[in-house]
Every structure is written in structure tokens, then in C-alpha cells.
Amino acid sequence: MAKLLMLTILGLIVIAPARAQVTVDVGKITCNQYLGFKVADPRDIAIWLSGYYHGKSNDMILEPQTLRQNADTLKNACFQPGNGDLPVIQVIEKTLLNKK
Question: How much is the pLDDT for 21?
């Protein structure tokens, strides 16, 4: 009985505390926040954005090379003067979506 109690207590101590759920409005992420890792890793944001735009266009094909190119294009566009305070979504619409 003592062993069971000890294992139960140990198990409760070892269990990591639950993380608070965080909600991010991706439409408000600026280029400065994107480039500065202020919200999340830029690669993670780029992957999410890719999924978002692919979903909007009902495109179910993932091309890893294109994903990398688009992430690089976005990063370069965010570095352009005047784009730092713009939302990433707006920069995408100006650069990547106007190409097609």
C-alpha cells in the first residue's frame, strides 16, 4: 500500500503542468514580429500560411520546394523598407499572390 501511495505521489509530481492555450490572430502578425521570432518560429508561421492559402484555393498538393521558396520570398519581402510594420498577410498578397 505504501508503494502504491508513493508511486501515485511521484506520478503527480512528474506530470508536467498543463500549458495555457494561446490564440494568435495571424492576420495581425507584422513582418517585424515574423522576422524577430516574436510570435513563433517563422518556419512554423510559413507552414501555417501555406496551409491557409492552399485551403482557400482547394489545393491539396504540398510541394516542399515551393513552400521553401515562398517562405524565402516572404522573408525577403518583409526585409524591404516600409514592410516591417505591415501585416504578413498583406505582404503575401502584394508579393506572392500577385505573381500568379
Answer: 79
